[in-house]
User: Fold this.
Amino acid sequence: MQTGSIDIQMIVEMILAGMVATILNLFLTRTWISLTVKGDLFLVPDKNKLGYPKASAAGGTFTLASITLGLLTFEIMRIYLHGSEFYKPEIMALALMASLSTLLGFVDDVLSLLSYSKETAVSGLSPKTRVLLMAPISLPLVAIKAGYSKLDVPFIGVVDLGIAYPLVAVPIGVIGASNAFNMLAGYNGLEAGMGILLLLSALLVGIVKGLDLVILASLIGIAAILGFLYYNKYPAKTFPGNSFTYGIGAYYAGIVILGNFEKIGVAVFLLYFIEFFLYIRSKKDKVKKVNFAKICDDGSLAPPLSKAYSVTHLALKLLVKLKRKDCPTGVREKDVVYIILFIQAIIIGVTLTILL
Assistant:
């Protein structure tokens, strides 16, 4: 994939395709919010705010659709303006995988909403069902035999997986990334911000290594998420839902696989590994894992439990310690998001400095 074929004209076309993704997502998300509010449908409470104000659920559904159309817009420009294809099989595979993962996430969102009540937790697809249904979503990448079978495994060295790479490693990577990205969530702008940072890391890898497909896919992904973030930033008018988290997680995995930088892709997922271990801790302590905070009388946030069962809990504990105050703590939802994004940015910076 390292072609060094990027020129000024291609950069302009990438930016135009990104603008299409941003504008389209702005329009579609705004339309979704308007329809849900008018019809009093798909509205769920924001559990990190006093009074639990409602906002539209599953608003991130259109982010992956916007990414898909952004990718196709660029491919159309290359074909009709230049008479040549630009990684057409890879782009089609990414677009199809994004669409399928979003569809699965939206089904999960709908099932969750149908079973929702204030007294009980939101339920949807079981973890086993999600994994089972997520496996076929990697088939577009499997079909084009995406990626390279030789992996540089930490502490081991280069390992050639052969045919097991596209048939086994690729599905595992997609399943793992999509489910992991879904775990760290629940705060206005958090999922969108994390998605932007992860794709930004991929963009930087693409620039340094001259991976033009990685640059395109990352740029369009960032552009589309920015359109969603406009409505998801604090105070959010809409929430991303599983349609966003499944989709972005799978999309990021696809970019990493196609760009053959799995070691970096896994390393920048450090916070999600921590989130997983905290999830295991909750299972061990028989505590129902929730990422939300305890709300103080003034609307500030405090850790919900004595132990931390999420990265969001760790962020809350750190912020409360820095503030040196009990409830009311003076810690706001934006503070939690900012510190997690700041830590993620540091992880990306260190990872790229060491491994790139």
